[in-house]
Amino acid sequence: MAGPGDDASAALDELSRNFTYWEPGAGNGSLSGAWYSRNQIHLLGVLLAILGNFVISISLNIQKYSHLQLAQEEQPKPYFKSVLWWGSILLMALGETGNFAAYGVAPITVIAPLGCMSVTGSAIISVMFLKENLRASDLLGITLAFAGIYLLVNFAPNITQAISARTVQYYFVGWQFLLYMILEILIFCILLYFHKRKGMKHIVILLMLVALLASMTAISVKAVSGMITFSMTDKMQLTYPIFYIMFIIMIASCVFQVKFLNQATKLYTTTMVVPVNHIFFTTSAIIAGIIFYQEFLGAAFFTIFIYLFGCFLSFLGVFLMTRNREKEHLQQSYIDFGNIPGKQMLDKIQPDSNGLSYGTLPDGSDSTKSQSGEKKDA
Fold first, then answer.
1. Within this chain, do residues 318 and 357 fall inside the same structural domain, yes or no?
2. Is the pLDDT of residue 158 over 50?
3. What are all long-range contacts of 276-280, with beta carbons under 8 Å and residues at least 24 apart?
4. For the chain, how many structural domains are there in total?
5. In this structure, are 115 and 155 located in the same domain?
6. pLDDT over threshold 60, residue 41
7. In terms of residue numbers, what domain contains 184?
8. Tens digits of per-residue pLDDT, 94-129?
9. Residue 187 and residue 147 share a domain
């Protein structure tokens, strides 16, 4: 009968066979033939992630277009009765499937930052098909995002790791992960206390809660996807309890992520939520990959530095693409009373949605009060 020591030694043997660490060489950090030969499986994951995120960006723009079409109808029907809307949902599912498969064949530190492709693709598609304005900051942001993606893919840790049930079990009980989990639970409880008990709704608190959950999502998604991939290419792994434990963690963390993210989007604009959430989510996922799957083990300092610089460029690109974007879509409706006989107005009145009166004058005074005041003076 095999004991705990035998299981641990078997897991270590499996790790030594399926885990290839970074090795110094001329091909590292350069898109050479040797680099391609060593990273074919990684490139498959990168391709799946890029295509998946691009399909997601198409889905989001189709959703937006369907809502615009419904708003123009005289008798708008519910959005869930729109064929376009359901088509966008199917595309969203297809894109997320591509991301899920990418985690099974490439490291988290490669796949997670590629989420900026959905923002980049959405910016390009919205200009081409929704006729939105192309700003200088959009062009700069897209350029920086692509430069960051190039550095991320080129200088990401060169680690090939087959994820089996024994591998996940070995990492799951490792002291690094247990210490990380204790620290994460402690921070999560503190943030949840301020959010629930103290009523603090700051965007950083809400998106930090999302990011802490995202680290567990990244770990569990890679575990589930990796074990499915291993089952298809080598040996069945779906009979191990750890697969279903990770599957439950994946579903639960995703559900609570959506809950806190929805609260953030209700309280803050999309231009604030998107870049901050992308930065927090990506950073949290990278830390999870480093601690749980040890994806930076053996990497050179220069490789790590260029990789982090690529992350910074992608973050900056997302910020520039989303900056002040929502302000351009606000409808500025003005009513000109200058041509009404018997009325003399110095300027236009802008509707005020926050007041009981229809509009406010440029100096901030209420229009109805001003007009009633004129009558009294008369």
1. no
2. yes
3. 276/203, 276/204, 276/207, 277/207, 277/210, 277/211, 278/115, 278/116, 278/119, 278/315, 278/318, 279/315, 279/318, 280/207, 280/208, 280/210, 280/211, 280/214
4. 3
5. yes
6. yes
7. 164-294
8. 999 999 999 988 889 989 999 998 888 888 888 887
9. no
